Amino acid sequence: MEHRGLILPTLLAAPLGGRILLTFLLSAAVLVPFLNLALPPESALHVPTYVVALTGKYLCFALLAISVDLIWGYCGILSLGHGAFFSLGGYAMGMYLMRQIGERGVYKDPVLPDFMVFLNWKELPWYWQGFDAFPFAMLMVLLVPGALALVFGFFAFRSRVTGVYLSIITQAMTFALLLAFFRNDMGFGGNNGLTDFKDILGFNLQSATTRAALFAASALALAGGYVLALFIVKSKLGRVLVAIRDAESRARFLGYRVEHYKLFVFTVSAMMAGVAGALYVPQVGIINPSEFSPANSIEVVVWVALGGRGTLYGAALGAVLVNFAKTFLTGAAPEFWLYFLGALFIFVTLFLPKGIAGLLAGTPGSRPGIGKFSQMLTRVFPRKVL
Questions:
Q1: 347 within some domain
Q2: pTM of the model
Q3: Among 54, 218, 331, 364, which lies 20 to 30 A Cα-Cα from 279?
Q4: Is residue 199 classed as helix, strand or coil in its secondary structure?
């Protein structure tokens, strides 16, 4: 194809599931705000504001899942610390939102956030400077997670740390950040984190219009993240990444600088996770150190595995489905949620190695999903039982 580097050929090469995802996201970015704002609450088609906010949060998680699938599904880098990049993007957005409060805080200090006044801070730390400007904050949403990934990846990939060892040190990284952000003297709110946000770009965060706009921004960001990831994996770079995933030593023997490819895709993935965190924070109204929990990063891997590793759109689907189930189960039977999550991961590992996307793909010449579903049943129940 002559213009192989253009976006349109990439979209045309997208799998059916990816095209459905993009169509759904672009439609939802318009229809959901319309159904929320334009229709009265008594209408059967009205979408309540809390559903808009909840679904917007799911879309942020879907973008995070795509960022993990980009490196795990196509380059073989199993990161158990991507929650760190997500959280750093969230803290960058939270710092901007805190600077917008000004004299509307409890202590009515025009410069210092309430927690700094409470802790008797005398002046704003240097690393908070500039966060009163939205463009600077958005730049930090990209640069802070990207810089951490660049430094971390440079030393890890140069040292040829791979496999489970790399997974362990990524988990250690996010745990170290968890402990650091819990400290009050770090200047990020300690255990309570950053909260009590008032507005964004001058718009009230509690208004239905702002929540609808944040939902639309999340849907468009997810669509953009998918297109970016698809563009990478469909390019020559993507084919090298797959070669590194399948036979890293052979790719290195052929002359490819494997660590450079890994470093690039790891950094891009971290920046995507930072954007997801930045969109997540204004919709939930808080960011605290618990977001750095290693368990959160492990949960993201479950989303990707359930949806389908190495499919991108499957990772987004898995994130939405698991979080919907989490919302339902933590309300109906909170004591069983973690057991369900563990059982789900075991089930997917044993019987759905290619996830839901692989199950729906089916086998050539058969109805979607029937062939693989039959094979799965046969593995669970022997034919003589069936």
A1: no
A2: 0.90
A3: 331
A4: strand
